[in-house]
Write a structure and sequence with these properties.
By secondary structure, the protein is α/β, with parallel strands linked by helices. It has helices spanning 11-19, 27-37, 52-66, 85-98, 116-122, 133-141, 158-163, 167-176, 192-201, 213-218, 232-242, 255-267, 281-292, 303-307, 326-333, 354-364, 391-399, 434-440, 454-458, and strands at 42-45, 76-81, 106-109, 126-131, 152-155, 182-187, 206-209, 220-226, 248-251, 272-275, 298-301, 316-319, 343-349, 370-372. The longest helix has 15 residues, at 52-66. Bound molecules: adenosine monophosphate. The site of adenosine monophosphate has 13 residues, from helix 3.
């Protein structure tokens, strides 16, 4: 498939795609669109950045265009569930952009904002509703919405919804939709719980999969700077001044850390904003708008807040703190070098973070070129940062009630421990076995569990 015309989409949709300057479908689109047009259920292994939103939005819009009916009050024809407010907003924007020549009613139901406007927007029924699970259930419980008219149900970033403790909400939501529906599920990974959910929700699903990281990572100029922990702030300002930065995304491990780094940058005369789960919806939107239109060129973010940010033209990704989950490194640096561009990824590695670097290099099978600015040249700690699960951990996998502290303590952040998930789901899951990681490299195994990040839960939205 080389053009969108070959899918046989409605003219109003292909016109919008031309206006969006989409010429060639991405691999996930090539695989998914014909299957969804045929009406089948889909399980898609794909991440943000692969074009998966259009992969489901285009054939859904095509269906709506082919069968325009008057929607009943307080119902929706298409329901898209997504884990975060940002992602939900972006999905809705995509539906609106590709469907701009169709007369469709769309709405967003996300937490963190008053419910009144959402209740009103659902009053006359909508064609497409994009929602976070918690708020959606609240609306259903308040009789603002019925789900008996859902023709297509999409679960986007299912593994992340699982991580954030939404699985029970999702089960409740699915139970309220008609059995005669088309269901599309997308997930970056396929842990056991997601495979079970898929088996329960989907009918004879076709599987589609893309593995974007291998391609992306090759285009990124990666560097490591070994430095003293206390020097990070100064080195960051120095880099942002010295390099030609179009947009820089700086990653910290904690929300508190993100605020601190942004404050230090502003103090040194570099305009920067922080984005993370503690920010209000208005603050996030304001910050993202400033980053998108170039008023602020440096955004400091935590992993979870950044994953939903859809901004092209990020020239630099800077790991102020090394991620303690190697896969997060790949996600982080994948934020640059999007849409065929090249990007630079610079990681600050203090002495205590050296084990994390080793894990990352083992995962990506590259020794990242490094420079050394340490004054403290003692050898890094020897203990491995990854541990194979212990029997107690294996138990906790079954009960879902694990202990805290499965992962190594994060250096320099002893006082800023991440919040626990809102509920107990998935808490304390053991980390992956290093051998497993080494063998999979970039090829994401559909059955491998992604390590739980407590930070995910703290950004949960209702
Ligand atoms: P997604 O994976 O859905 O978050 O999409 C990633 C980015 O790729 C978004 O900015 C989309 O607007 C863009 N995009 C999606 N499909 C195409 C395409 N076929 N051609 C060009 N850009 C695309």
């Amino acid at each position: 498939m080389t053009t969108f015309a070959e899918f046989g989409l409605a003219e109003a949709i292909t016109r919008a795609l031309t206006e969006e300057k989409y010429v060639t479908p991405t691999p996930i689109q090539t695989q998914t669109i014909p299957l969804v047009i045929n009406g089948g259920d889909i399980i898609g292994i794909a991440q943000t950045g692969t074009g998966k939103t259009a992969a489901f939005a285009l054939p859904i819009l095509n269906r709506l265009a082919a069968n325009p009916i008057r929607v009943e009050r307080k119902t929706c024809r298409v329901l898209v569930l997504s884990p975060t407010r940002e992602l939900s907003g972006q999905i809705l924007d995509s539906f609106r952009a590709y469907g701009r020549h169709l007369r469709l009613q769309t709405a967003l139901a996300i937490g963190g904002v008053p419910m009144g406007r959402q209740v009103r927007s659902l009053m006359n029924g909508v064609d497409v509703l994009v929602a976070t699970p918690g708020r959606l259930l609240d609306l259903v419980q308040q009789n603002a919405l019925r789900l008996n008219g859902v023709e297509v149900l999409v679960l986007d970033e299912a593994d992340r919804m699982l991580d954030m403790g939404f699985i029970h909400d999702i089960r409740k939501i699915v139970a309220k939709t008609p059995a005669q529906r088309q269901t599309l599920m997308f997930s970056a990974t396929m842990p056991k719980e997601i495979a079970e959910l898929a088996a329960h929700m989907l009918k004879n699903p076709q599987k589609v999969a893309v593995t974007p990281e291998a391609i992306t990572v090759e285009r990124i100029d990666q560097r490591v700077i070994h430095l003293d922990y206390g020097a990070k702030s100064d080195v960051l300002s120095e880099i942002l001044r010295a390099e030609t930065v179009n947009r820089a995304l700086v990653f910290t491990r904690t929300k508190h850390g993100a605020d601190k780094v942004a404050r230090a940058l502003n103090k040194s005369g570099i305009a920067a904003e922080a984005i993370h789960g503690n920010k209000s919806q208005n603050q996030r939107e304001r910050v993202l708008a400033a980053f998108r239109d170039g008023r602020v060129r440096t955004l400091v973010a935590t992993d979870i807040a950044a994953r939903g940010i859809d901004v092209d033209g990020i020239s630099h990704v800077i790991n102020y703190d090394m991620p303690n989950i190697p896969e997060s490194y790949v996600h982080r640096i994948g934020r640059t070098a999007r849409a065929g561009a090249e990007g630079i990824a610079i990681s600050f590695c203090s002495r205590d973070e050296a084990p994390f670097l080793r894990d990352i290099e083992r995962l990506i099978r590259i020794t990242i070129p490094s420079s050394d600015r340490r004054t403290d040249r003692r050898p890094p700690p020897l203990q491995p940062s990854r541990q194979t699960p212990r029997p107690a951990d294996a138990n906790s996998r079954r009960t879902g009630k694990g202990r805290r502290g499965q992962r190594p303590p994060y250096p320099g952040h002893g006082q800023n421990r991440q919040q626990q998930p809102r509920n107990g789901h998935g808490k304390g899951r053991p980390r992956s076995n290093p051998d497993q990681i080494a063998s999979v490299a970039f090829m994401r195994s559909p059955t491998r569990e992604r390590p739980k990040s407590p930070a995910d839960a703290s950004d949960a939205t209702r």
